[in-house]
Every structure is written in structure tokens, then in C-alpha cells.
Amino acid sequence: MYIEKLKLSNFRNYESLDVSFSSTLNIIYGNNGSGKSNVIEAIYLLALTKSFRTSSDINLIKKGTSLSQIKGEIVSKEKNRYQIDLSEEGKKVYINSDKVGRISDYVTNINIILFNPLDTKIINDSPSFRRKLMNIDISQESKEYLLLLNSYDKVLRNRNAYLKQLYLNANASKDYLDILTQKLVKIGKSINNYRKDYIDKINKNIAKIYENIFEYGDLKVVYSSSFNDKSEEEIFKNYQKKYYREMEMGKTLSGIHHDDFEFILDGNSIRDYGSVGQQKNAIISFKLAQIMIIKEEKGEYPILILDDLFSELDNKKINNIIKMLNKEVQTFITSTSIDNIDKNLLNNSNIYLVENNLVERVSN
Fold first, then answer.
1. Strand 350-355 relative to strand 90-95: parallel, antiparallel, unpaired?
2. Does 104 fall in a domain?
3. What is d(CA 330, CA 3) in angstroms, rounded to the nearest whole number?
4. What are phi and psi of 335, to 5 degrees?
5. Phi-psi sector, 97: left (phi>0), alpha (psi -120 to 50), beta
6. Rounded Cα gap, residues 230 and 120, in angstroms
7. How far apart are CA 67 and CA 88, in angstroms?
8. Cα separations (Å) of 334 from 36, 40, 72, 310?
9. If you ran DSSP here, which 8-state letter would residue 311 be given?
10. Taking a C-beta distance cutoff of 8 angstroms, is the pair 278, 190 a contact?
11. Which of 45, 103, 253, 269 is deepest in the core (most CB within 10 A)?
């Protein structure tokens, strides 16, 4: 899978942009603030309908305009045209000019993996941040998983609301709470199975990737959940035991909405004992392991974005990464300069200069 063409209209600093990319290695360089990150942000947005830099779509629309468009031609088993329109009224998505009604029917079509220097947040931020990442990754593989998440969130909101009602009204029936609990357990167990399978697949590859690139260490990911290794009946009984406490608190105190995962290097938590460099190395290995999962599930490689990689790693480690990547993986690497990049890498790359709101191909 690769993006052949990208067209932007009133996106960030670009009034208009029309650029074609190679299906292999693309290096995009330019000064900070030139707009190179906006290009890869647009590619990411085209795939997942969300930015990795802002939670507000309004921030993506060029100032002084009311409509932003991102269009791309994606070559997979066949070529398709994808489009996202952003305005104050909301977001609209299209495939081959046909409007797609549900985001869940759109986001599983373009697979993309992003490494960004800020991704160390995955290790050091809250469990909710890691769950969000896990949900994005699994949703790229399975539309059913995304639908399960939506159903779980709906049942969870209803259950929390009814817990508050029970606290205020001692005569309210507990039967309805049991029905909601059973639904929560059933849906949650399905989500738990997806997540366990996802982490198992990550662990099939991540240790070897870490050792091949960084030449030391045994890395794995450990997934924790109150649903792990328990039947639906056992989980339901655990909720029954927490009934009075949950009623007093007015919320559901356990479930897959509290799941988490952590990185373990040589038997120790990277969050607690790892250096900043080890944390970044773990995240890069984690991202590359995701590539293997998508290839296994979808039969083709995703698009890979390595944002500002040259500021994070030396040339030897970067070359180790490139050597690991199959030539079928379309890869984007951003940098502020190409002066210190390995010449062999440059000779095998398609290079684009970003300046003055223009993206110009300068080699290959």
C-alpha cells in the first residue's frame, strides 16, 4: 500500500499543494516551520480522519478560509481516491467521490504507522493515552473492533448513569443494572480478546526488532486488564461484589476502560528504569512490530512515517531500520537538513525540499 498523490486545499499553511510520491523511500526536509510536518499530518489524517498534532479539526483549516480539503490516491490491491472535507460544520469523508456515512467504514481502508519524537508519551503518559493508541492500531485492522468500542462506551455511560440513579433512589430496581453489567461484560470480553491478541502479535516481533536495530536487550510488552484470564461469569461476580462501592461512587470502577500496557526491557519497566534513549528505542521497535501485524492481517504493508528520525538516532541505527524494512514499505522520513544523512541512504531515496509553502522534488 502506498500514497501516489496528495492534494491539499486550504490545509494548514498550504493554500494549494499537488505532489506525487515514490512507493519506496521519501525524505522530506526543510526548516522548522516550513510545513514539512503539515504534509505528513495530511497523509496521517487522510488515513485515520484524525490529526496526530491537534484534537481540533478547526486548527487544520487555513486561516481566513472556511473549507479545507485533503485528497489522496492510494494504491493497494487497486487504486482508490480518498477525500476529507473539513469545515466549521464538521467533517465529511469520501471514497471515489462517494460520501461515506460512518467513519468506521472509512478508517480501515488506509493503514498507516507513525513514529514521532513525542511518542515517548506512550510510555510516560496516562493509561488512557496508551489505550487510545491501542484502539487506533487495532481499529485499522478490524472494523468490528471499532464498533465494539462504540457499543462499550454507550453501555458504560448508561451503567454509570443508572448507578447514580440507584444511589439517589433506594427503591429503584437492581435488575436493570444487572442487564447493563452483563452487556458490559460480554462486549468488554470481546474487546479484551482483541487486545490480548494484538499484544501477543507485537511480542512475536518486538524483541528481535529491538535487538537487530539497537544490538542489545530483550524487550516485551505486558498487557494488564481486570478481564484477563477470567470467564464472563467470573467477571460478572466481581462486579456484584463491588455493587455498593460503585453505587456510592456513581461510576464503574473496573473494566476494559481501565486497561493498560507497559514495556519491559531485560525484566525491568522502561517507564521506571529506562533512559530516555531506551524509551525512544522501545517505541520505534513497537511501531515497526505494528508493520508486521498489518502485513500479516491485510496481506500488504502499511505506509510508514518516521517524523524527525534523524534528530533521534545516529546514521548506523537509521540504516539498521531501513535494512529491516521491505522495499514494499512506503516510508516517509522528515528532517530539517540532509547534510548529515548517510550518502547511500540519500542515493536510494526520493528527496523533497519544503520551503515557501511549496514541496519540490529535488532528486531521483
1. unpaired
2. yes
3. 8
4. -160, 155
5. left
6. 32
7. 8
8. 7, 8, 19, 8
9. G
10. no
11. 45
88 and 164 part of one domain: no
Q: Residues 146, 290: one domain?
A: yes
User: Is the C-alpha dihedral spanning 86, 47, 2, 13 positive or negative?
Assistant: positive
- Whether 95 is covered by a domain: the verdict is yes
What is the rounded CA–CA span in Å between residue 35 and residue 171? 61
Which among 303, 234, 339, 342 has a CA at the least distance from the CA of 1? 303
Q: The domain that contains 214 carries what CATH number? A: 1.20.1050.90
106 closest CA partner among 58, 140, 64 = 140
pLDDT tens sequence across 63-108:
999 999 999 999 998 999 999 999 999 999 999 999 998 888 898 8
Alpha-carbon span 312 to 131, nearest angstrom: 25
Backbone angles phi, psi at 6, to 5 degrees: -130, 130
pLDDT in tens, 291-345: 999 998 889 999 999 998 777 777 788 888 887 787 789 999 998 888 878 788 8
Query: For residue range 229-269, what is the model confidence (pLDDT) as tens digits?
Result: 999 999 999 999 999 999 999 999 999 999 999 999 999 99
Q: How many domains does the chain have?
A: 2
Band the pLDDT of 364: cuts 50, 70, 90: low
Q: What is the tens place of the pLDDT at every residue in 56-69?
A: 899 999 999 999 99
| DSSP SS3 for 137 | helix
100 and 206 assigned to the same domain: no
Domain end residue (candidates: 298, 314, 345): 298
Q: For residue 43, what is the domain's CATH number?
A: 3.40.50.300
Q: Is 171 helix (H, G, I), strand (E, B) or coil?
A: coil
